[in-house]
């Protein structure tokens, strides 16, 4: 009998309840897998409190042996690193390594696995045949799921493997297979699948291994059930100190969902365990700080800088850029006073979100160009995805360069943004998937591999979908379109909401300013300050129009008058 999953939600029906509620199996093979694939610390036994040796003795002895057997001809061959960099200068070690590339005693290159993994879901008969081709593997199921995890196979293919295993074992799928499937769900950010696996594991096991907890926390923080990640963190504390990655994920989840106090409390708890925070954790605080005008928050960020100094930690280029942006955000270059931020407060954001959902999404005229069924389909689609970082108006962006092929332009934009590890959503129309001189299927398939995509009916309007996805993802999410959304602003009936919408739009809308197709995509700069008359009591900042410069109603002045009282 063939079992083909249409969704992971059917798994509990196939699996029998396990009468033994216990800790998941802890094998060294499994621990190594998680360390390689997820960056999780290698803790082979859940209850082991034995400290790991600070050195790998075998590896050290190997290095000593290699040093003894260097060819005599190599002894004088090492050249000095150029005199303009010292021994500990960044990049010096790489230069020294490049000078020694002629040596013959290099380590062997890693062995590449040449197995051809399935590219589509298989049925039971096809899995049986596939297994026959690999009779030499003692545990085919465990081996193949490891290969799939290593190669980041699609969720559907892995799901068909689990269905095949469940059908052969009276509905039982082992912990090892389940947790590696969970890894694929987290990697591909299939949040609904993560939640389904979470429910299954919660029902079957009282406790998990550190790797299982880490994957669940990493997946749950992007969902509406993100606070349950904190319960998993508490479960870990009952047995051991959580890892810095566990704390990082929970902190990122708290910031993503605007719970600043919780994020700082978790950070202090991490330091209290004498753990060195991940640099991405510290960066997350600075990135969030760009949206906050609060002296107390600013002082905490300054404490982080002192922490870097006292612990000889060096931020990466991206982290350094975040620090720079935070320092420069909202300061008058004339007097140094802080200018009101363009970003909405959490209260303003929630107020605006509710108004737009009610007046524009639910109560607007979008049904003239779409249907309630399609809008509901889109809302369900968004709920199953992690929060997006950037929402792209696909058709609008594709027409940026009229003489270029539209699918090529869209692919160029998506590929550049995907390299920054951003969670992307491309909104489009169904005709974009049809082969045409302006739309190539192979290019659109590449777009779909790098971003989540939703293609509406050809008569549907994109803007309501764009607004909904951006607001649903949170205050960090930006959107790309040349559309100025004046019609939707007009749907907001009171002046306060219109002002907040325009302020939010200025702080979140990206526009491409390239002149030539194929060149690196650059975006128009988003201002960090609000263009309104402002005062701090002893100073005034007044935006004003230049003479002879025509300004449309949806534009703002670029010149400022800076006034401050003499003391």
Please give a structural write-up.
The chain has helices at 11-14, 28-38, 57-68, 92-99, 124-132, 140-150, 155-168, 175-187, 191-204, 210-220, 228-237, 244-256, 260-272, 279-289, 295-310, 317-328, 346-362, 372-383, 394-398, 406-418, 441-450, 463-473, 486-490, 495-508; strands spanning 390-393, 424-429, 452-456, 478-480, 509-510, 534-535, 539-544, 559-564. With 567 residues, the chain is mainly alpha-helical. It has a five-stranded parallel beta sheet with strand order 3-2-1-4-5, with helices on both faces. Helix 7 runs antiparallel to helix 8. The longest helix has 17 residues, at 346-362. It starts with 10 loop residues before the first helix and ends with a strand. The model is unreliable at 1-89 and 102-113 (pLDDT under 50).
Secondary-structure-based class equals mainly alpha
Determine the strand fraction and express it as a percent band. Answer: 5-15%
Q: Mean pLDDT score, rounded?
A: 78
Distance from N terminus to C terminus (CA atoms, Å) equals 88 Å
- What integer value in Å does the Rg equal? 28 Å
Percent of residues in helices: 40-55%
Strand element count: 8
Domain PRORP: 328-562
GO molecular function, one term: ribonuclease P activity
Subcellular location: Mitochondrion
Enzyme class: hydrolase
Brief sketch in words of this structure:
The protein is mainly α and 567 residues long. It has helices at residues 11-14, 28-38, 57-68, 92-99, 124-132, 140-150, 155-168, 175-187, 191-204, 210-220, 228-237, 244-256, 260-272, 279-289, 295-310, 317-328, 346-362, 372-383, 394-398, 406-418, 441-450, 463-473, 486-490, 495-508; strands spanning 390-393, 424-429, 452-456, 478-480, 509-510, 534-535, 539-544, 559-564.
């Amino acid at each position: 009998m063939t079992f083909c999953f249409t969704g992971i939600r059917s798994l509990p029906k196939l699996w029998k309840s396990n009468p033994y509620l216990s800790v998941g199996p802890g094998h060294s093979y499994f621990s190594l897998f998680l360390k390689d694939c997820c960056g999780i610390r290698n803790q082979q036994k859940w209850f082991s409190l034995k400290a790991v040796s600070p050195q790998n003795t075998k590896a050290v002895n190997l290095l000593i042996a290699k040093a003894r057997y260097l060819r005599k001809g190599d002894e004088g061959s090492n050249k000095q690193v150029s005199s303009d960099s010292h021994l500990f200068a960044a990049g010096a070690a790489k230069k020294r390594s490049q000078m020694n590339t002629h040596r013959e005693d290099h380590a062997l290159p890693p062995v590449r696995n040449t197995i051809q993994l399935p590219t589509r879901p298989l049925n039971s008969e096809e899995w049986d045949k596939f297994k026959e081709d690999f009779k030499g593997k003692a545990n085919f199921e465990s081996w193949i799921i490891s290969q799939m995890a290593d190669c980041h196979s699609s969720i559907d293919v892995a799901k068909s493997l689990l269905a095949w295993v469940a059908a052969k074992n009276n509905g039982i799928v082992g912990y090892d297979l389940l947790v590696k499937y969970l890894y694929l769900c987290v990697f591909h950010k299939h949040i609904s699948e993560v939640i389904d696996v979470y429910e299954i594991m919660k029902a079957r096991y009282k406790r998990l291994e550190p790797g299982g907890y880490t994957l669940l926390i990493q997946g749950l923080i992007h969902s509406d059930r993100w606070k349950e990640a904190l319960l998993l963190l508490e479960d870990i504390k009952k047995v051991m100190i959580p890892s810095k990655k566990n704390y990082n994920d929970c902190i990122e989840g708290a910031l993503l969902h605007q719970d600043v106090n919780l994020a700082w409390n978790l950070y202090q708890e991490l330091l209290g365990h004498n753990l060195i925070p991940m640099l991405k954790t510290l960066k997350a605080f600075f990135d969030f700080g760009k949206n906050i005008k609060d002296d107390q928050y600013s002082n905490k960020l300054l404490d982080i800088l002192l922490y870097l100094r006292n612990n000889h930690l060096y931020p990466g280029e991206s982290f350094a850029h975040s620090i720079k942006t935070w320092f420069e955000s909202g300061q008058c270059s004339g007097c140094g006073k802080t200018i009101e931020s363009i970003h909405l407060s959490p209260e303003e954001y929630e107020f605006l979100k509710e108004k737009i959902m009610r007046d524009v999404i639910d109560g607007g005229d979008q049904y003239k160009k779409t249907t309630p069924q399609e809008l509901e389909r889109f809302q369900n689609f968004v709920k199953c995805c992690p929060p997006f970082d950037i929402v792209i108006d696909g058709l609008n962006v594709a027409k940026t360069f009229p003489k270029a092929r539209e699918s090529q332009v869209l692919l160029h934009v998506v590929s550049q943004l995907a390299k920054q590890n951003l969670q992307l959503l491309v909104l489009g129309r169904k005709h974009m998937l049809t082969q045409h001189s302006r739309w190539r299927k192979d290019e659109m398939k590449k777009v779909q591999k790098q971003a989540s995509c939703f293609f509406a009916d050809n008569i549907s309007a994109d803007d309501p979908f764009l607004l909904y996805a951006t607001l649903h993802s949170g205050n960090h999410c930006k959107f790309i379109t040349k559309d100025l959304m004046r019609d939707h602003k007009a749907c907001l009936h009171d002046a306060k909401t219109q002002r907040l919408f325009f302020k939010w739009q200025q702080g979140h809308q990206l526009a491409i300013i390239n002149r030539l197709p194929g060149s690196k995509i650059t975006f128009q700069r988003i201002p960090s300050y609000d263009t309104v008359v402002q005062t701090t009591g002893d100073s005034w900042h007044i935006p004003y129009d230049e003479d002879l410069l025509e300004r449309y109603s949806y534009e703002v002045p670029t010149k400022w008058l800076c006034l401050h009282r003499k003391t």
